[in-house]
Amino acid sequence: MKSHIIIPAACIILLSACHSSPKEAAVKQDTTKAAAVANNVVQLSPEQIKNAGITTGEAEKKEMHSTIKVSGVIDVPPNNIVSVSMPLGGYLKRMSLIPGERVSKGSVLATLEDQQYIQLQQDYLTAKNRLQYLEADYNRQKGLNETKATSDKVFQQAQAEFNSQKVLVKSLAEKLRLIGISPDALNENNISRSISIYAPISGFVTKVNVNIGKYVTPTDVLFELVNRDDLHLTLTVFENDAVHLSVGQKITCFTNNQPDVKYNATIHLITPSIGENRTTEVHCHFDKDNNNLFPGTYMNAAIELNNAAVQAVPEEAVVKWENNYFLFTEEAANSYRLVPVETGATNNGFIEIKSTLPAGKIVTKNAYTLLMKMKNSGEEG
Questions:
Q1: Which processes are annotated in GO (biological process) (predicted)?
Q2: 86: helix, coil or strand?
Q3: Is the pLDDT of residue 223 over 60?
Q4: CA distances in angstroms from 2 to 6, 7, 15, 126, listed in the order given
């Protein structure tokens, strides 16, 4: 009986030992791993540091400028875009323009004809001749009135008719000038049924909205001309970025088709108002003439902000984790602490650190190796 009692007791002791050993080992392992990530500190052996290529250094003072990335379109000043129309309607008689054609200021764009042009010239010449008669009659009545040979009423009537005719002649002359006819050169021998439309500026034809034989009205736009001599870039900037801009700042821009070709420009004007979409317009002048750029072309641009001496570290020193930025400071030999930081501008391989760093060295190379070690230790724990 004694042997039967001793054997079960031994089994119970053995089973108890088997169940307790893994738990104790797990607790020890958890404690070790928790120590590795406690207080955001990770520790490596000298061999691990050497194999990972981890190096340390100190933050530096760097002259850096931050950039604002924006977009916009190439444009020309409003006075360099002209819509050509005719104040008096008529039938298009001659025209040979096509979009893209270059024209010079004063050149003939088209010819219109209509009977109202004849009527206007006739009215002017008739009014001008009557003015001569009324002027002579006025002078005659004035002399007679001075000698009291005629009544004041007759003189006043002659004076009123003379003045009214001068107004009529003047207004008809302005109407003639409006359609390009010189009233001083007009006489009964050169009355014309047609008038010419002249280019108001030098530039390129961008739109042709008419064809020969079509009747055009004063509200119709016949052609559109653009002068490319003063191209500028209009950028759309969000209100949060606009406060950092000032006239004279330099920008670098490029087109989508040729991103490797850079163009330099300077901010010329900043619209002092914010629109409904929370943006404002910034007008920039190119530093050099660019004949290969066209109005309406979409461009990307980077606006350089003012240089400043800032605290900076190599870009490799900063790691991103859970949408926040960190770097590692050297706590002791082979021990590194994860520290949150606020970053700023990036330039030439360095990144600005706006927050205050603890005294001592930081990890400047292969910081992500430490982050992976810390994350893996935390997940395993």
A1: copper ion export; plasma membrane copper ion transport
A2: coil
A3: yes
A4: 6, 9, 20, 152
